[in-house]
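I hope you will forgive my troubling you with a question about protein structure. The matter concerns a single protein, recorded as an amino acid sequence and a row of backbone structure tokens. Please examine both parts with care and let me know of anything in them that strikes you as inconsistent. Here, with my thanks, is the record as I have it:
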Amino acid sequence: MTVSIQEHDAAPVLRHTEAARYLGVSPDQLRLSRHTGELFKGVATPAYLKIGNAVRYRKSTLESWLADLPEYRSTADYQSSK
């Protein structure tokens, strides 16, 4: 019997450096955010997994985290949201 895992059955898990690349930040910035709680000023760090000593990020968690960030059409929109 062959068991296959469908793409939708398993959530991809990214290593620390892969997650940083996906988010467009440096690995050091992402690592520091786990200690400070903020990836950017006023922006909470995305949730992560600890598997033994390893840090991993679910790609679906990163996608949700990005989707929850506000989007702006201009700097005026950004300034008025403060």
Summary: Strands lie at 13-15, 38-40, 43-44, 49-51, 54-58. Residues 1-9 have pLDDT under 50 and may be disordered. Residues 12-70 form a domain with the Arc Repressor Mutant, subunit A fold (CATH 1.10.10).
